């Protein structure tokens, strides 16, 4: 009995850590290359861009919403930035202006989505689905569906460069943003209000929380983070790609839920999402190391996501 209680307690408190440890052990057994420093740093770089997108998705899920537009906003922001960088021949002024413009268009899209939901009470799913189509169409329209090349070495540093020749700069951005939003959620009125809105929106409104304003701000933050991820993607690839970000919204939702977020709102954390992103990236990484074809990878990833969600449900019942 004590043993069962001990296992139950561990699962309740550290279920994500347990899953990460299990998959790391399995990965190390399947491939000796997995536990090398180079592979870990590579893992950090590959996980950084979907990880940044997932931070924004977690904020939206906390209020009981969903944002299907993040992958398309990522692509459009990347294209807008790339076009300006290209036209200004990769100059520093062009890079700065391009990044600011890319962030501006992503903020505008998030503002529209949030306004449609909070002001006109459109369902989150429908409003963000519409914005997903608009943003993807705009990304393709900018260059008639053609990639933008020749962005220069200076632009490549932000997304594809390395600090001290070892740690990916994009990974550093991801860690900084995770810590920043973890502190925002824990220590600010705005952060705490997201949990209240997700837990009971009507009660939050009656308690004086400006739910409509905070709802809109949350979608703006989600879009801005997606836009920043799009700029990093274009920088890393040294190419503006209008098809970038396909499926990122689903990966972001999966990482958030694996990390402990509840799709009904009111529960979750960006630190948990950080672990969820790493877990999904570990799966992809080990599949590549052992040479598993991509179609098997998708099946295996889907099964593992289901298992992780069932574990989270079990843990939630145990807590109740």
From TrEMBL:
InterPro entries: ABC_transp_permease. It is a multi-pass membrane protein. GO terms for cellular component: plasma membrane. Its main location: membrane. It comes from the Bacteria. Keywords: Cell inner membrane, Cell membrane, Membrane, Transmembrane, Transmembrane helix, Transport. GO terms for molecular function: transmembrane transporter activity. The keyword tRNA processing does not apply. It is found in: Cell membrane. The keyword Nuclease does not apply. The chain crosses the membrane at residues 14-35, 47-80, 92-117, 162-185, 215-237, 257-283, 295-315. CDD domains: TM_PBP1_transp_AraH_like. This is Ribose transport system permease protein. It comes from Anaerobium acetethylicum. The lineage of its organism: Bacteria, Bacillati, Bacillota, Clostridia, Lachnospirales.
